[in-house]
Amino acid sequence: LSICFRTVEPLEYYRRFLKENCRPDGRELGEFRATTHFLSSGSITTADGSALVKLGNTTVICGIKAELAAPTVDSANKGYIVPNVELPSLCSTKFRSGPPGEEAQAASQFIADVIENSQIIAKEDLCIANGKLAWVLYCDIICLDYDGNILDASAFALLAALKNVQLPSVTINEETGLSEVNLKEKNPLIIRKHPVATSFAIFDDTSRKSNCSLSFLGGSPLTGAKLQDCITRAITRHKEVKKLIDKVIKSIKPK
């Protein structure tokens, strides 16, 4: 009955919980989904870096594959980072098989914006030989179980997976001009920033830590006080998530 009511009258369904100052899953209105429930790095052995994150009942896995390519003419000293978020039909009944839907495309663009705005990795660090060779990082983020908050979960998984990446040493042979890969010598990526996404839903009348991105996807106007409250809570959550990821990364031995 509850599921039918939520489907037919979603607005009224959630308003009833708002009156009781709680959420349908039992959380208080200001309570985040549990981030510490499950997070592991190195989940995909065939990837150069990976991580699985469970945020509440939403589960996301991120796999990163590194390939060598020539940099573009206008960015001769930079590599590439190519993110892609997938929301397959198996993760929720709200999605269908076929080309990426609107939400998946929006999530991919959100992750791309986070990467660009936060400078989590300097693309210059991915360059091996100026104008000749650079790393391309393909970041595939796949939702295994969808229960909302996909943007936060995707950002967490991306950060944890990037911190898990080990790239082999690559040099250019000056005599032959060919690249030489040393699989016995691997190095982690230089993670310059640690962006953590924190989403809020605002209902009706609702540093050197800086914001790298702020998205407002419609709804009622947001007052300065509420925005500041969201930012303060986001900073607190950033500390919690970064501490968790650092703890997990330290427990993983390099391959």
From TrEMBL:
**What is the primary gene name for this protein?**
Exosc8
Q: Which organism is it from?
A: Ardeotis kori
Gene Ontology cellular component list:
cytoplasmic exosome (RNase complex); nuclear exosome (RNase complex); nucleolus
Q: Which CDD domains match?
A: RNase_PH_RRP43 (cd11369)
What is this protein's name? Ribosomal RNA-processing protein 43
Q: Output one GO MF annotation.
A: mRNA 3'-UTR AU-rich region binding
Q: Which UniProt keywords apply?
A: Cytoplasm, Exosome, Nucleus, RNA-binding, rRNA processing
| Membrane-spanning ranges | none
Domain of life of the organism encoding this protein: Eukaryota
Task: Kindly state a single biological-process term from the GO annotations of this entry.
Answer: exonucleolytic trimming to generate mature 3'-end of 5.8S rRNA from tricistronic rRNA transcript (SSU-rRNA, 5.8S rRNA, LSU-rRNA)
According to its UniProt record, which protein family does this protein belong to?
A: Belongs to the RNase PH family.
Subcellular location(s): the record lists:
Cytoplasm; Nucleus, Nucleolus
The Exoribonuclease phosphorolytic domain is annotated at: 39-168
Which InterPro entries would you find in this protein's record?
ExoRNase_PH_dom1, ExoRNase_PH_dom2_sf, Exosome_comp_Rrp42_subfam, PNPase/RNase_PH_dom_sf, Ribosomal_Su5_D2-typ_SF, Rrp43
Q: What is its main location?
A: cytoplasm
